[in-house]
Amino acid sequence: KSDSDTYSCDIGDAQSRAKLVVQEAPVLFKRELQNEEAKEGKQIKLTCELSKPGTPVKWMKGDTVLYASEKYEFKQHGTVAELIIQDVQSVDA
């Protein structure tokens, strides 16, 4: 996308210009979240893989957006996004 701009070819007395518009490829899931089971009090990690590195990820529980806290930790390494839930309880299901 950052390559979108006007380009020119200059031969001294003449110049030719063209505008390049780059359409971003959609971000897709290469590997989706998998169902997990955990024992109460343990830590669980949910992982998904995206088709494009550095894509912002929003984690949700039902309709509620999750925010980083002592309970929830977010990590992202290239195309892999992780949600780590500390001290899982039955209400986390």
Q: What do these coordinates show?
A:
The protein has 93 residues and is mostly beta strands. It has a domain of 55 residues: Immunoglobulins (Immunoglobulin-like, Sandwich), CATH 2.60.40. The chain is 0% helix and 41% strand. Strands 3-4-8-7 form a four-stranded antiparallel sheet, with no helix packed on it. The mean pLDDT is 95. InterPro entries: Ig-like_dom, Ig-like_dom_sf, Ig-like_fold, Ig_I-set, Obscurin/Obscurin-like_Reg. It comes from Ceyx cyanopectus. Pfam families: I-set. Keywords: Cytoplasm, Disulfide bond, Phosphoprotein. Its main location: cytoplasm.
Topology overview:
Elements: E1 5-10, E2 15-20, E3 29-31, E4 44-50, E5 60-61, E6 64-65, E7 72-77, E8 80-85
Antiparallel strand pairs: 1-2, 3-4, 4-8, 5-6, 7-8
Q: By helix and strand content, what is the structural category? A: mainly beta
Order of strands, widest sheet: 3-4-8-7
Determine the CATH topology of the domain at 31-85: Immunoglobulin-like
Mean pLDDT, rounded to whole units? 95
CATH class of the domain at 31-85 equals Mainly Beta
Shape: rod-shaped
Oligomer category:
single chain
List SSEs in N-to-C order: EEEEEEEE
Number of helices: 0
Radius of gyration computed on alpha carbons? 22 Å
The amount of helix comes to under 10%
How far is it from the N-terminal to the C-terminal residue, by CA? 40 Å
Major β-sheet annotation: 4 strands, antiparallel
Tell me the fraction of residues in β-strands, as a range: 35-45%
- Report low-confidence residues grouped into runs of 5 or more: none
CATH superfamily of the domain at 31-85: Immunoglobulins
The number of strands is: 8
| CATH architecture grouping of the domain at 31-85 | Sandwich
